[in-house]
């Protein structure tokens, strides 16, 4: 069934089209529009035979109609806002980046998992609460169950872990690399449909686990040829931050203060101080000074929670690569989710939003009705990462997946050429002429699709049982039997 597309015309254009109807060129305005759509879809030209006296005027009206139809058809066919089309070249680049992320994760002993694209709404909102509902792409409710597309992988991977929690050896080291969806305003590095590496480690409460996932996040970028001059890791501890803030504000407003601290870098100093005063923070200037301390040894906590967090953080930093780590007391990453170490990876230029972020979430498994189990991990988004790689000239070059392109010299060997292609496809990616082009154009096409080598099949080659093979990069040619390729 064809989808109906509505074309809206201005009154002025409708008036002009009615003149074509009056001249008998079209039976009605609707048919004139349909004719214009047909011309666009089939790429055909209109038949000649217009009234000579008014030919130029008629053609001008038709041109106006064609342009309006083309514009509106294009609008109807554009991709959804906040999504990305991946052409073969872009898919090649993405695949290479993803292969690096997969290989790096596996080198640390993590295994890949893949949960469903949709979960129940109750599962999706359990981690972050009702405020996430507005960002969930909900599916049409068919029965009593209500589903939505996943907006991260931590939630579904945690659910998967709980289902097999007792039988899985600890620590369980899993990662996912797939697409997610969030309904929000699209901007650079933030899309509605996006891809993310999600690394989750269940079962260890020790600083070694936090240090390992941080090291993995760093190596994901260094294996893509980014260096310490390109990015760094901002690290903090939620217990440390919360313990310090509790001395400056009442518990009812603690959550608001943490949210404010988390966006401190986006505010002017005077605006940050004003916001602290609005929350009735005790001694805003002193708190601001403490939050700006970049030397962890200068932090002197007064309560047990902060002391515990400081000691945890020092242990993690001790086990991490000092070339990348920067202590930052303002890193918070939300209120109810993280419980200990938190970290974010940023480009050193400050041009982009966070490349990756994560930390310890020891309460999530229990929150999802599993047995108490410590956990830590991070997420790394492809959208922002690709922007940085492009900026640094480090995006991989697209790779051709065509090992051989078979050039057919004459139609009488077509069947033989097809048989050769089918034999080679057991080991290689092989394409063959499907357009009945001449030899020159076949070679041009092979070059345009970046085929690595070209095999020439003609009557002489079939008689000898050998074919000519040309390396498209070096130009070198050799003769080989098919079975030797």
Give an overview of the whole structure.
This protein is an alpha/beta fold and 485 residues long. Among the domains are: 11-77, no CATH class; 88-230 and 348-391, BirA Bifunctional Protein, domain 2, CATH 3.30.930.10; 404-484, Rossmann fold, CATH 3.40.50. It has helices at 11-22, 29-42, 55-77, 88-107, 121-126, 154-163, 207-222, 238-245, 254-262, 269-278, 284-291, 304-318, 364-367, 382-391, 414-424, 439-448, 459-464; strands spanning 111-112, 118-120, 147-149, 172-181, 193-202, 231-237, 325-327, 341-347, 356-360, 375-381, 404-408, 430-432, 453-457, 466-471, 477-481. The strands form 3 sheets. The chain has an 8-stranded mixed β-sheet with strand order 1-4-5-10-9-8-6-7, with helices on both faces. It has a 5-stranded mixed β-sheet with strand order 12-11-13-14-15, with helices on both faces. Strands 2-3 form a two-stranded antiparallel ribbon. Helix 1 packs across helix 3 (55-77) and helix 8 (238-245) runs antiparallel to helix 12. 30% of the residues are buried.
């Amino acid at each position: 069934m064809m989808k109906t597309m509505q074309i809206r015309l201005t009154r002025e254009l409708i008036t002009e089209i009615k003149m074509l109807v009056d001249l008998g060129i079209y039976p009605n305005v609707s048919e004139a529009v349909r004719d214009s759509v047909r011309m666009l879809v089939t790429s055909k030209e209109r038949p000649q035979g217009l009234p000579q006296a008014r030919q130029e005027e008629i053609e001008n009206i038709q041109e106006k109609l064609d342009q309006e139809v083309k514009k509106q058809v294009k609008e109807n066919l554009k991709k959804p806002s906040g999504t990305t089309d991946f052409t073969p070249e872009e898919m090649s680049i993405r695949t290479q980046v993803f292969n690096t992320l997969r290989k790096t994760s596996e080198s640390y002993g993590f295994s890949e998992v893949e949960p469903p694209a949709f979960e129940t709404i109750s599962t999706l909102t359990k981690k972050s609460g009702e405020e996430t509902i507005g960002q969930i792409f909900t599916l049409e409710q068919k029965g009593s169950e209500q589903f939505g597309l996943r907006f991260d992988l931590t939630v579904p991977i945690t659910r998967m872990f709980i289902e097999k929690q007792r039988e899985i050896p600890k620590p369980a080291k899993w990662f996912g690399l797939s697409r997610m969806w969030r309904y929000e305003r699209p901007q650079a590095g933030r899309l509605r449909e996006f891809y993310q590496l999600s690394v989750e480690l269940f079962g260890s409460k020790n600083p070694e686990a936090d240090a390992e996932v941080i090291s993995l996040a760093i190596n994901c970028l260094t294996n893509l040829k980014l260096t310490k001059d390109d990015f760094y890791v901002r690290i903090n501890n939620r217990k440390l931050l919360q313990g310090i803030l509790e001395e400056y504000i009442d518990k009812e407003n603690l959550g608001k203060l943490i949210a404010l601290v988390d966006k401190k870098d986006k505010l002017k100093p005077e605006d940050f101080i004003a916001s602290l005063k609005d929350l009735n923070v005790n001694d805003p200037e002193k708190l601001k000074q403490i939050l700006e301390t970049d030397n962890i040894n200068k932090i002197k906590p007064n309560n047990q929670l902060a002391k515990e967090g400081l000691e945890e953080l020092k242990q993690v930093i001790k086990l991490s690569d000092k070339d990348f780590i920067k202590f930052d007391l303002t890193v918070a990453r939300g209120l109810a989710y993280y419980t200990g170490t938190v970290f974010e990876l940023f480009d050193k230029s400050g041009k982009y939003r966070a490349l990756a972020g994560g930390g310890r979430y020891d309460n999530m498994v229990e929150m999802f009705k599993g047995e108490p189990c410590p956990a830590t991990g991070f997420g790394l988004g492809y959208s922002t990462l690709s922007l940085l790689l492009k900026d640094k000239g480090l995006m991989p070059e697209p790779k051709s997946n065509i090992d051989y392109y078979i050039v057919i010299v004459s139609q009488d060997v077509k069947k033989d050429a097809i048989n050769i292609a089918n034999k080679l496809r057991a080991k290689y990616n092989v394409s063959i002429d499907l357009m009945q082009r001449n030899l020159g154009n076949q070679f041009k096409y092979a070059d345009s699709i970046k085929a690595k080598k070209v095999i020439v099949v003609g009557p002489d080659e079939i008689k000898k049982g050998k074919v000519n093979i040309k390396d498209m990069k070096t130009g070198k040619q050799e003769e080989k039997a098919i079975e030797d390729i």
